[in-house]
Write a structure and sequence with these properties.
Layout (H helix, E strand, L loop, with lengths): L2 E7 L7 H19 L7 E7 L5 E2 L2 E2 H11 L1
Parallel strand pairs: 1-2
Antiparallel strand pairs: 3-4
Organism: Morococcus cerebrosus
Keywords: Isomerase
Family: Belongs to the 4-oxalocrotonate tautomerase family.
């Protein structure tokens, strides 16, 4: 039973319900096609992580995006 965990930023950047459904379908189909996994036993979980709780290079995504807006 494959288990796939997709993590995305939440808030205003969060994917829509339709986008999530497409991700779930697409990942399930990919595992079936490439690895011959049974779609009926494939689990896909999408976690939305608040941008304050996701960091890159020592800074939260919130801080990085604020800096990018000021400089861009």
């Amino acid at each position: 039973m494959p288990y796939v965990n997709i993590k995305v930023t939440g808030g205003s950047e969060a994917p829509s319900a339709e986008q999530k459904a497409e991700l779930i379908r697409g990942v399930t189909e990919l595992l079936a096609r490439v690895l011959n996994k049974n779609p009926q036993t494939t689990v896909v979980v999408i976690d939305e992580v608040d941008m304050d709780n996701w960091g890159i290079g020592g800074e939260s995504i919130t801080v990085r995006r604020a800096k990018a807006q000021k400089s861009g």
